[in-house]
Amino acid sequence: MTKKIVSFLLICILLGAFSSCNKVLDVQSSRLAPEANSWKRLEDTRGALMGMYGLMRAALAEDNAHWLWGELRGGDFTSSSRSDLKAIINGNLNYNYPTLQTLSDWRRFYAVINSASTFIEHSGTVYSNDQRYTEANWKADVAQARVMRAFAYFYMSRIWGNVPLVTTSEEGDFVAKPATDQTIILNFAETEILKGINDLPGVYAGLNDPLLPNSYYGQGPASWYGILITKYSAYAILAHIAAWQGHYIDCDAYTSHVVNELSTSQIQPSAMRVTGSDYLTDPTQSGNLFTGNNQRQILAFAFGATENVGSGHLEELTLAAPFVSKSVPDMYVSKDSITSIFPDWAQPGIAPDPRFGRDSVSKLYYEKCFTNFTGEIPVFSKVKCVINSNKGTLPMFNSAIVFTRLEEIKLLRAEALYNIWGPASPEAIALLNDVRSQRGVALYDSRTDLLDAIFAERRKELIGEGWRWYDLVRYKKIKDPAFTKNMVNTKGIYWPVSVSVLATNPKLSQNSYWN
């Protein structure tokens, strides 16, 4: 049944929910789904809700945008031959490549925002007319729409800074609007999430869930793990909104809900922890982080394993032989970068890191995250959910886009506690050590700066998950005044706005760094 739900999300995309998107904010909307006169039955709200998730998955997946925005700029990947990827890696974001033009266009997110706004405005009609649509169900659905809209604005603000703020659905022509200051955008996002967070369950259809027990749209809890926004997803987004602004007291408060409340929830931390390395890197392992949907995903966007999908997955960029019939990956982590990320890999007396290291007896390199290290080009194999890899056929993948998970939130909280209490924060050290112990590596050594150690662990743990550039920005805001002067204050940390967006909206202007 889970596959049916995930497949429905994909169908929403393939039927034009995303690819038919016209110029939101400047031309007539082509997909208000369902139309205002279609909000009659429980099935209408279910379809609209799943369509909203499908739109967000499509926004992140098109041109593999989630990883190109988050991993390449200033990151650890190298392009083997693609000039467009090299341009992003080198920070030349205004080069005239089709991929960069697509990545500079924010209209994909306004499709999500419009879908969420439409749901918020019209779903109450179904609640009034269909007795099957309970108040708790309706409130949880509206809360999901609020959080999704807020998430879209947060995601955009990390990429472009100031963006137009639209808070209602647009039934006809979209009115051209100027960009709104990022602070206002993020305040709106935070407020929206807080409005609905108490209506979100920790577990959809959980046996003893106080909001939506036993069944949600006719399905049990296993069907919804990793599929929908929960209260923990909402708190995780709030934490990142706070951290992006340097509001670390708020970040600590929000992350504490995720880390501490899970101990009393129906999803125990042991079920959410990515322990060892198999759950992280082995797609055949039941509950693998990236395969399908599961409890380890606090916020993720999955594709169904039964769908023939090659695009919109990290594997399309990173895998090569022996996983697929491709001799060289589009991008890879160089040997120098790998040994820089894992500097203790060859140190005697130090427990080897299963993410990268060498067996002390056989002298063979671990290949859970990096395959073919002894070859010319290593293959980044942390994510390798391959459906069809036969020679002569187009490879298909079914990995989820995982925005956040428990280990990421623990390290974010450690970052917050460092910034609140300083380098001697025992709780920050404990959180860092908790993540390190899950990988079976040595605990934190106080001879290393604690903040450096926290971000070094994020670099190891989260590589390939779309965090590197945003982590660098937060780290350098704290540690590098020159970066703040030369990149933050000049808006150099953001992407340029698409030329086509500027051409159709005269009230917008290019980010100053890219003029």
From TrEMBL:
One Pfam family from the record: SusD_RagB
Keywords for this protein: Cell outer membrane, Membrane, Signal
Signal sequence coordinates: 1-19
Domain RagB/SusD: 401-478
GO cellular component term of the entry, any: cell outer membrane
Cell compartment(s), UniProt: Cell outer membrane
Principal cellular location given in the protein's record: membrane
UniProt protein name: RagB/SusD family nutrient uptake outer membrane protein
